[in-house]
């Protein structure tokens, strides 16, 4: 009889150990499945697909810190493009200046008001003058906040009788603001200053 009890006790221990082993395996499988699922979801969130010209293109998301220099340079380029691209049309001028002023602080508004007060925009309209800008380079120092920048560009002013090429150098600082439709990069230009804006070439038409 004692032998039978011993056999039952041994069998019970074997069943118990087997059940514990199975439970440990189940927990390990569940933990691995949760880990892999989390990794897949995270990876899927970092990828997006863009439909362009009927083709699906894959894009990968990255942190803003990695893109600050690129976004900062593009913000500065877009500001200068809108501020200095002018045609003899009041609606075009107002549209471009409005877009530019969303990207900068009161220093840009003061520059606009000074030009308007000096009849700069009125002369562009009355003289059938077009103005465009070509950004040569933008240097941004992201080592210290707010970010100091300097922009090197050339302006092309097309008049009925001549084409004037001007050298333009500006500087300022960038600070972070909320992104919006009017300010997609989330930067604001501060203390905008024109260092140089002089004629370098005049070509007759």
UniProtKB/TrEMBL annotation:
Keyword Repeat: no
UniProt superkingdom: Bacteria
Signal sequence segment: none
Coiled coil location: none
Alphabetized InterPro entries for the sequence: Conjug_transposon_TraK, VirB8
Record bears the keyword Repeat: no
Keywords: Membrane, Transmembrane, Transmembrane helix
GO cellular component: membrane
Domain Bacterial virulence protein VirB8: 19-194
Segments crossing the lipid bilayer: 14-35
NCBIfam families named among the record's database cross-references: Bac_Flav_CT_K (TIGR03781)
Protein name: Conjugative transposon protein TraK
Protein species of origin: Ilyomonas limi
